[in-house]
Amino acid sequence: GGRFEADLEYDSDYILLFEKDDYVSKRININTKVPGSFDKSRLEIIEFEVELEQQEDQRAIKVYDNPVAKIKFDGRQNRFSYDVDYTASFQEKIRKEERQMMLEEQRRQEEAERKAREEEQARLAAEAEERRRQEQLAREEAQRQAQEAQRLAQEEARRLAEEQLRIAEEQ
Question: Hey, which bits of 8-159 come out as E strands?
């Protein structure tokens, strides 16, 4: 269940690392430095929870290189507690990183859509160019056939004229 107890020495600085395969590792910083007037024989119990999230994006891990929370002695309360300023700044870093990742994802999607539109336009342009080329070939073929038909008609007319001339000469 992940529960543990640890006896930590006073006047030290600890980093506890929580990790599991395919999950984002998290660190907690515990600073046990206390004022000289503190009774070091008394037992201080610090309870906290750490939730590990499944790793979805390798880029998200860079935020968690720093501790997610810091626990230190609070002289006003005369006990150990969370450093709320650090927690607030860390949460703001996470929100900024998430916004940045969302913007990057949005930019990637927009770029992919732009590229898809460009590819579609290029495909349509290529198809239109191919149709124009085919139409030009068809026109050229029709023109060639018309010229051939005209040549054959002229040749036939000449042959008939020669045939009529031959017949006339024979008569």
Answer: 13-18, 26-31, 69-74, 79-82
Report the side by side order of strands in the sheet with 13-18.
13-18, 26-31, 69-74, 79-82
Q: How far is Cα 90 from Cα 68, in angstroms, rounded to an integer? A: 7
| CA 26 – CA 54 distance, rounded (Å) | 12
* This prediction's pTM: 0.58
Q: Is 80 exposed, middle or buried (0-12, 13-18, 19+ CB in 10 A)?
A: middle
Q: Residues of the chain with pLDDT > 90: what percent? A: 49
The identity of residue 73, as a single letter, is: F
How far apart (Å, rounded) are the C-alpha atoms in residues 73 and 8?
13
User: CA nearest 66: which of 80, 54, 83, 81?
Assistant: 83
Mean pLDDT of the 88-93 span: 88
Phi and psi at 81, nearest 5°, equal -155, 175
Looking at residue 14, what is its pLDDT? 95
The DSSP call for residue 51 is P
Residue 66 DSSP class: S
